[in-house]
């Protein structure tokens, strides 16, 4: 696992209470991990804080559905 992937998964694990070893890239953040819209926005904000970046909320809402989508979006900004 690369550094960005590991750190994004840590953010997701911490926020949603999902065991880190259970997180897979193809897991849908809402359907598989049970995140609601508030959880999703908090994930985006926590990822921004973790990496010191700014993500466009509209872009994130359109592009991020899976764990891997969030990893990919963050990787583009760091």
Percent of residues in helices comes to 55-70%
Q: Whole-number radius of gyration?
A: 11 Å
Number of domains as seen in the coordinates: 1
Q: What is the CATH first-level class name?
A: Mainly Alpha
Helical element count? 4
- Content of β-strand: under 5%
InterPro entries: ACP, ACP-like_sf, PP-bd_ACP, Ppantetheine_attach_site
Function: Carrier of the growing fatty acid chain in fatty acid biosynthesis.
GO biological process, one term: Kdo2-lipid A biosynthetic process
Main location: cytoplasm
Features:
4 helices, Non-ribosomal Peptide Synthetase Peptidyl Carrier Protein, Chain A, mainly alpha, fatty acid metabolism, 78 residues, single chain
Please sum up the structure shown.
The chain is mainly α and 78 residues long. It has helices at 3-16, 37-51, 57-63, 67-77. The chain has a single domain, classed as ACP-like (Non-ribosomal Peptide Synthetase Peptidyl Carrier Protein, Chain A), CATH 1.10.1200.10.
Structure explained in plain terms:
The protein has 78 residues and is mostly helical. The chain has a single domain (4-76), classed as Orthogonal Bundle (Non-ribosomal Peptide Synthetase Peptidyl Carrier Protein, Chain A). Helix content is 60%, strand content 0%. It has 4 helices and no strands. It has helices at 3-16, 37-51, 57-63, 67-77. α1 (3-16) crosses α2 (37-51) and α1 (3-16) crosses α4 (67-77). The mean pLDDT is 93.
């Amino acid at each position: 696992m690369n550094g960005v992937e590991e750190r994004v998964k840590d953010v997701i694990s911490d926020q949603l209470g999902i065991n880190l070893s259970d997180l897979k890239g193809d897991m849908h953040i809402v359907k598989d991990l049970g995140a609601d819209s508030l959880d999703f926005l908090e994930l985006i904000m926590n990822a921004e804080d973790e990496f010191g970046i700014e993500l466009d909320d509209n872009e994130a809402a359109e592009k991020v559905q899976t764990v891997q989508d969030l990893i990919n979006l963050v990787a583009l900004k760091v």
